[in-house]
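User: Design a sequence. Structure:
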């Protein structure tokens, strides 16, 4: 897997072998509100470089997910808690 920043977008290449093809997803940096790391919700400021290197597509919390529900998302590492 590789993550590259290109023109404000994060281009993420994930090996998904379905019929022998690789999957490719593009996520705009502006759409990322936070991450799921080991049962924690982590904001953009609290994630470490090492954690970013290990991200999978399922780890991203995107703006659509946050806005389509009445649930509130808070960073588990910030003090006081930062709302995503």
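Assistant: Done.
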């Amino acid at each position: 897997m590789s993550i590259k920043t290109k023109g404000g977008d994060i281009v993420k290449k994930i090996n998904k072998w379905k019929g022998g093809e690789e999957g490719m997803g593009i996520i705009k940096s502006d759409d990322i509100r936070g991450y799921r790391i080991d049962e924690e919700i982590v904001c953009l400021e609290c994630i470490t470089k090492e954690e970013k290197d290990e991200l999978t597509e399922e780890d991203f919390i995107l703006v659509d997910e946050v806005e389509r529900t009445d649930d509130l998302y808070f960073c588990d590492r910030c003090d006081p808690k930062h709302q995503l």
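The radius of gyration is 14 Å. Confidence is low (pLDDT under 50) at residues 1-21.
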